[in-house]
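Q: Here's a chain of 56 amino acids. Please give me its 3D structure as tokens.
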Amino acid sequence: VAGDLPSPLDPPPGCAFHPRCPRAQERCRLEAPTLRPLGADRTVRCHFPLDDQDPA
């Protein structure tokens, strides 16, 4: 994700990636996502994951 990293001493509320995520919505600003399965062998911590992407 492009952009500046948030301060670890003063992280943003909600999802830590929302200030620089192009898919961020209001939910991302308010609520931190929980870890959940995505497919057979992956997990994701995102409210709106891209399920068609190859793992990094």
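Q: Can you summarize the key feature?
A: The CA atoms of residues 47 and 53 lie 15 Å apart.
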